[in-house]
Amino acid sequence: MARFAALAVCAVALLLAVAVGGAAAQGVASVITRSMYESMLPNRDNSLCPARGFYTYDAFIAAANTFPGFGTTGSADDIKRELAAFFGQTSHETTGGTRGAADQFQWGYCFKEEINKATSPPYYGRGPIQLTGRSNYDLAGRAIGKDLVNNPNLVSTDAVVSFRTAMWFWMTAQGNKPSCHNVALRRWTPTAADTAAGRVPGYGVITNIINCGLECGMGRNDANVDRIGYYSRYCGMLGTATGGNLDCYTQRNFAS
How far, rounded to the nearest angstrom, does the alpha carbon of residue 15 sit from its chain's CA centroid? Predict the structure, then answer.
């Protein structure tokens, strides 16, 4: 009898594990459905956008499936907030919107390459996160199994690779910077140095991680406003709160 009871307990545990695994397997696609993706990025295929036809929903999902923790970790609110933050930041990086226009925050994913291609060529900004610099191309390539040092154009010609580089950057801590993933999930605890530098948990620190030297510690600026606008729009669409500390106006950058 005891043996059968133990087997029954194991069976229940297995069913629960399968149920949890099934929910995780649905992953990002259960939150960012195809229709949601289209609604979030209504102009990505606009004829005015150089990236039209590139950032497909299928490419996004295929890339997300290679990072099991991305958009699948924590509570339902955690998941929504992380995805809103990811799309908020990457939409700003690729925006084709006009600041101050009524539809400013509806033009994410309009570009797939840095416009003037002047930053660290040939390793200028590409993809949703605008991956920049030889070191990032090298590290990202090693992580996803692609030689991006010798083939940097893969980031702007292969949409799955492009999304994977953005997700690699998002999920990976570098130097004294936490991962964007952990910040979005509120799992980052500032060090004494972070506190002294005004770096506090919130969306603003993610901006600091991505583009610290150009946007943080210099007061209110249009780039921060744009990032926050996109994020706020997506939080509203996904039904989650933005949380506090949305900007990095008074934060010293991580490199200081």
Answer: 32
